[in-house]
């Protein structure tokens, strides 16, 4: 899917001029008159970034940012501010917005920022996808296999694992092979790496 | 009423001294008509009391005491009347002061409003101007990329023109808004006006250890001015002077306000400080809106002052003092003689 730049701004003239400018660089653009319209029409599955006016009637840019966070929608945000709103923009960045840009702005600066936002989104989506795959693979392991995996990652020799679980060394070797196939790991190092990643992301959530 | 009280006093006899009731008509008259009429009623009351006393046939150990008593009553009546009259004057004065204070507040609010309008204006004009910039850049990028169709470019330029026109319309609206305010001018005495403004600024001057000196010219004719607006100009110039002397040694901090005839048609008011003076490159921009040498402040003060003075057909200018510091002068037209 081609990425899209969402633009939320209450000023129709300014909104349209932004569309024209971004399209001149070959970007796909969707525009919205206010936060409510964006929340109603926005499709979270498509790679995207969001250009957001700080000051809007109804739900302000900052409120929309909060709403997106409570809904668990992760989309790189770039705030558009007028002179004098810089304090607000700084607050927005502190709360996780990618950046802000003061209007009137330089076209190169804006397009650079939008490209960076789209890259951030692509990276986040890639990471999320890898996590999902890993989750799927981990879920195919049986209870016994998880026990073996845990001990292998702790650096225990097959003999010790066999003793601890009260099974034959041959059986441990058999489990290890199956684990490697299920998790698509070629070496023990790769296996350990996968499990460490899994633990890290789990802790992050 | 005086007669009625006299008759009641007579009827009730010696035991009740109702002469105190004479104060009622005296008070009423003083309050409504004035002190002189009040004194008239006091004299009438005393005479009434005197004759009623004779009618009642009160005996005195000496006939002179009747006159003596009348005299005391008259004195008391007059004193009470005078006190009441003073009280009324004081109330009126404080009323006036409250009104003046309110007028000043309103004027300040107006100036604050001007600041708000300016900031709102900046925001509103920024919208279409930013849009114009975007449309232009969009066109340029398309032209440079070589992939463009005339129809698309035409449409974008059309939009850009519309946005530029929108910016113009916003400015037009502000013009109309500013034009609606009609100040009122009347003949006023310059010296008391300056004096009053100075009394308002003394506190601020003292805070900065500044001597605020007034040098009024005598025999100034009245000027034709909107008092509240001109007071704002004087206050603003004094504030600037205080600001300019921030780095002057405390012993030399003197701010002098002078009034004088500028020529036959104009009275001149000058504010002279002993501050850092005005450098040549600032002098040019001094009266430009949004020009400021301070970190806080919009840079609208002097430009508003100039607008106010020019509205009065006067002029506002700055000059360097021979002994250092700078002076700001403005002129107000002499009020036309009443025919």
Give a structural overview.
The complex is a heterodimer of chains A (205) and B (339). With 205 residues, chain A is an alpha/beta fold. Helices cover 59% and strands 12% of the residues of chain A. Chain A has helices spanning 12-23, 35-41, 61-70, 86-94, 107-138, 143-153, 158-165, 169-183, 188-204; strands spanning 4-8, 28-32, 48-53, 77-81, 99-102. In chain A, helix 6 (143-153) crosses helix 8 and helix 7 packs across helix 8. The longest helix of chain A is centred in the middle third of the chain and has 32 residues, at 107-138. The mean pLDDT of chain A is 87. Chain B contains nine helices and seven strands; from the N terminus they run H-H-H-H-H-E-H-E-E-H-E-E-H-H-E-E. The chains are: A alpha/beta (205), B alpha+beta (339). Chains A and B meet through helix 1 of A and helix 4 and helix 5 of B.
What is this structure's SSE topology?
The complex is a heterodimer of chains A (205) and B (339).
Chain A: E1 4-8, H1 12-23, E2 28-32, H2 35-41, E3 48-53, H3 61-70, E4 77-81, H4 86-94, E5 99-102, H5 107-138, H6 143-153, H7 158-165, H8 169-183, H9 188-204
Chain B: H1 2-12, H2 23-32, H3 35-56, H4 64-145, H5 150-179, E1 186-188, H6 190-207, E2 211-215, E3 223-225, H7 227-244, E4 254-261, E5 266-272, H8 280-285, H9 301-311, E6 316-320, E7 326-333
Parallel strand pairs in B: 2-4
Antiparallel strand pairs in B: 1-3, 4-5, 5-7, 6-7
Report strand % of chain B: 5-15%
H-E order of chain B = HHHHHEHEEHEEHHEE
Largest sheet of chain B, in brief, is: 5 strands, mixed
Number of discrete helical segments of chain B: 9
Distance between the termini of chain B: 45 Å
What is the topology, as strand order, of the major beta sheet of chain B?
2-4-5-7-6
Question: How much of the sequence of chain A is in beta strands?
Answer: 5-15%
E-strand count of chain A: 5
Helix content of chain B: 55-70%
